Amino acid sequence: MPKKDYMKCYFGCRTKGPFHRFPKPDYPHSDRFDSWKAVLSPAIQNKGDSYICDNVRICDFHFEDRYRLPSKRLTRTGVPTLNIPIRSCVERTGYLLKPSTNQSNFGHFHKTGDAGPSGCVPSINLDDSQREQHLENTADGTAAAREVMSPPTALNPPPYEGVVERRAVPVELHNTTDGRPVARLGTCLPIHSTSAEEAARLALITHHYAGLFTENILSPLGELAYVRLDADTVEKVFVNRSRRILITSSDGRLAQWRAVPTFESRNRYVAGTPVVDGGGALVSVVLARRHNHYALAANDGEGGYFDTTEPWRVMDPPAGALVYADRWFTTREELRAYVSSLGPVDAGAPTPVLHRGARTRVSLVAPGGRQIAHVHLHTALTDDVEYL
Questions:
Q1: Closest of 56, 51, 60 to residue 18, by C-alpha
Q2: What does the pLDDT look like over 184-210, one tens digit per residue?
Q3: Which UniProt keywords apply (predicted)?
Q4: If 0-12 CB within 10 Å is exposed, 13-18 middle and 19+ buried, where does residue 338 land?
Q5: pLDDT of residue 96
Q6: 3-class DSSP state of 99
Q7: Which residue among 24, 153, 205, 377 is buried most deeply as judged by most CB within 10 Å?
Q8: Where are the strands (E) in 255-297, listed by range?
């Protein structure tokens, strides 16, 4: 290919770059490659993966700031979501779409007509009271349909942020005793959303993932996942295993902790929002958030459990403090004096303690104050974590 034709954006943008190559189509990059490939027309897709990697480039104009590094390269999770021409989306999906009114991202779309068959996860049958069609004239004269779906698991209304696709994921929506919404898919239920009585019952009959009760073993969590927004809409996200959030949970039998994977989104999800894979199998649910990063229930990553009936205590020691059990000290002399004053380990249920901060650690403390176990955690984020 001549050089003057080589450095052009697929979408025909008038720019000097930078231009970004497609990810490799092989594992572990295959999911990300498929997301890039999805913005291409069928004619280009049919030319094959090798042709796309060798010949197609997408300029910086189509990537959000969060995907850009100071070197002008993209992060390993970067996908084109901005300023995607409507025609390209219509060709590859068969849906009638219109750009989002969100001016910060013209690549966000919401449906404006018949979207055809649902995705590969089970469909929800909605009656007339659950689905209302409203047609309104848009500024360009196009008739747009607004579908009111029940129940949504996103707190923000459409048009949604991010890479949005049409796929049905069934769910029930309930309220906790303090009025917070929580999604429930089958027997999957966040532990922090249960009452003490319900937790005691479920602890005997279900699996205890990090922060989650479930009767079924979850499918493996890959690099790409789909998070439910409403009855027939999901957000396509990339799972981040380098930015982990520490989740703690107690069910009356075990006190568990785990540094779980996250995904980034500007949508606002409720606790228990289902997360599925490309085949529609449940791989996780949403548990907590830290700014725009959501924590996923998972059994991979640093973690463990204490065999105790006591709930977690959370503490925030000052920077540089010396931590022992459920206390901290400013000098080693104070620490030694306190430990010397303690008697032997008392009988009774010990208390699990999470010490947040730059040096995160968990401790198990006997009723008399003596420390039974102490574990340093090196990779987990613990500050500003909000359980949903």
A1: 60
A2: 887 788 999 888 888 888 888 888 877
A3: DNA-binding, Hydrolase, Metal-binding, Nuclease, Zinc, Zinc-finger
A4: middle
A5: 29
A6: strand
A7: 153
A8: 255-264, 274-276, 282-290, 293-296
